[in-house]
Amino acid sequence: MDAREAYDELLRRFRERALLLSSKAVLEWDEETHLPPRGVAHRGQQLAQVAGLAHDLLVQPRVADALDVVDASPLVADPRSEAAVNVREWRRLVARHTPLERALVEETARRVSLAQPAWADARDRNDFASFAPHLERVLEVRRLEAQALWPEAPYDALLDEHAPGMTAERLRALFEPLGAALRGLLDRSRGAERRPRLDLLRRRVALAAQRRLAERVARALGYDFDAGGLDESAHPFSAHLGPHDVRITARFDESDWSEGLFGVLHEVGHALYDQGLPPEHFGTPRGDPVSAAVHESQSRLIENGVGRALSTWRWLLPLLRETAPGVFDDVSVEDLWFALCAVVPGPRRVPADELTYNLHVFVRFDLEQALLAGTLPVKELPSAWGDAYARALGVRPATDAEGCLQDGHWGAGIFGYFPTYALGNLFGAQLLAAALRDLGPQDDAFARGDFGPLRGWLAARVYARGHELSADELLVAATGAPLSPDAFVGALRRKYEALYALR
Ligand code: ZN
I want to staple 214 with a disulfide (CB 3.0 to 4.6 A). Which of 50, 163, 264, 317 is the partner? Predict the structure, then answer.
């Protein structure tokens, strides 16, 4: 087998695997949006079968042999070439899967598919006890996997799936000073005399009108509805089902019209990334996103960097007035902006303001390490959660539903993902600062609803590059500097000093 033949065979096999995984994504998307309750068990079997097949395609000796042949050839001489990028990431994938038995992969998929509806049900009924045994069973298989991969650092083994190159130690070194800076700014805003008019967010906007507004905003941001669509689900998410098929979901709420809109902004940020990946490289790393952490940077950048910019609301307030005639006639853009960015320490992560959001993440980062290590027994999670919130945010959730049951990640078997939200905030702020430096201020463009220049910048430096670079390399290439919390903290400081008239 010469190197060209070996590479072509790898392309064929990994594209086959990508087709399987995108079929799995359709099954998962359907499970979250339309699957009837009695269909859950069969769906679990389907997902387990596909996960097993996808695993088998990776761990065959022929794959390892072909990788060796290509790796020893001039095809990979240039580390930025398509072949070099693909082989580098294929090797990482194969190394992650080879130590795992197919039986464990299937068992994990089965347990997760049962735990997910159990979690949703437990949250709806505020009944942690009914979810606890599922969480135990999921933790058990994820521990086995982590042990098989990196026995000396099991949490890092799971984290590496979502933020390659990151370790718990590196995260702690980033998060500790960041937490101190955020708490300092939080204390200052608490003492401020200027207060936001939060009642503006509770003014009534009909659900159908909220949806129309969200679609209009999504379109203006560049989301392609001909290569996607907006559905409703209990938890908003985006799903990359294939090239030219990137769906988003939303949840609209009459008690706060802004939550649904910001949920859509977040998912559009994810979807723009997936819609901007090079479709000709679908199914290979050259056409994949870099990591969950970089993905979250794109969602947080759109949600907060764009969606919570004063200039954007100069464009959006008139649209909101059209959407809900008469409801916002007496409202100034400055007052609305203040309400939308207001610091409100609360029990829930998803609608949290930009300042306290990372504090929610840090609570989960600590607790999931303890759960995985077994130092925090599952039955003690609710009380540990309450204590951690009291310490970090000064609030204690009134129920488990708005406490440790609010997020579906752990029930979905996903550990080591939460840090990607905090990393996403840092990456996103650093990328936005670099974009504004390169493009010049975008206030006038945003105020017209023109996000084209920013999207073009992101498309060239992030979307179109696929997984050519690691997250750390991408950040240096796009911004000229390694990862640092400075851009994030600086932007928050400027925003909250202005909003709360802090000195
Ligand atoms: Zn996200």
Answer: 264
